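Issue 218. Parser rejects a valid record. Input:
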Amino acid sequence: MPAQVTPPGELISVAGDRLHLVVDGRTDAPPVLLSSGLGGAWFDWLPTVDLLRGRHRVINFDRPGLGASPPLRSAPTLRAEAARLAALARWAGRPVIVAAHSYAAFHAEALARTCPDLVAGLILVDPSCESAARPRPHLSRVVCPVLRAVGRLAGASGAARLLGPWSRTQFMRRISHHDPVPPAFVRAVYGRGSVVGAALVENVAYREMAGDLIRLRRSRPFPEIPLTVLTAVGDMRSPDHGHPWVECHRRLAWMSPYGRQVTIAGGRHLLQTDRPDAVAEAITEMGPRR
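Output the parser choked on:
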């Protein structure tokens, strides 16, 4: 992170990882753990955090290599990501409410299935839904060093400073109605070669994690905890229950006897930015374990 841009929060050691954490809200309130989508950063949740800080203790973090967290050399795996969430839940004071966006829903569901005692409830925010995925070879272990080298080269050559922020801008136009993040933070984060490399690695690992989650579902039942699936329908011409995305999310909600699906109009995929009111409401309405 450039010296002229200082991110909020701090770097802490959790289960051997150095992670950038931003903790906000009331220290005596129920803890909420936020997990960003593919290539995301802590600032994607800022509009939602603004609405939560009066009612919750909010723990917002960056996965290794993303946001303001230092990179790791190992490739991401579903088991490692679930273990990282478990360590953060223990650090925060279990059990926690977990809100996970998009790709991070894989990690959050794996946490709930493997460590149900750590999870008070789960909110999946327009989650990635790959119910037909198949386990596949973990090529990211081979490709990961190459992609990280590409990131380092992009950083050393200056290409990351140009392409990284530009790529985020183009991506945001597809998934959100607006970007409330200060441009200085966007340049500071996505202008780093290590972030470019980490985002490329997560993109490769996506299908692997989807397949591993299908395999985990066969051996570990979903616990009887509250589950809310938020479905963004702002881009859908016919956002009815016949839409494949809506139906896939409905099946996710059925994983729990206390599950429910809520369709959110007026928001695109990055609901925590477009409809922070709906995300915050789902979190605060999450009841205690029954």
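Fixed in the parser; the record now loads. The mean pLDDT is 89.
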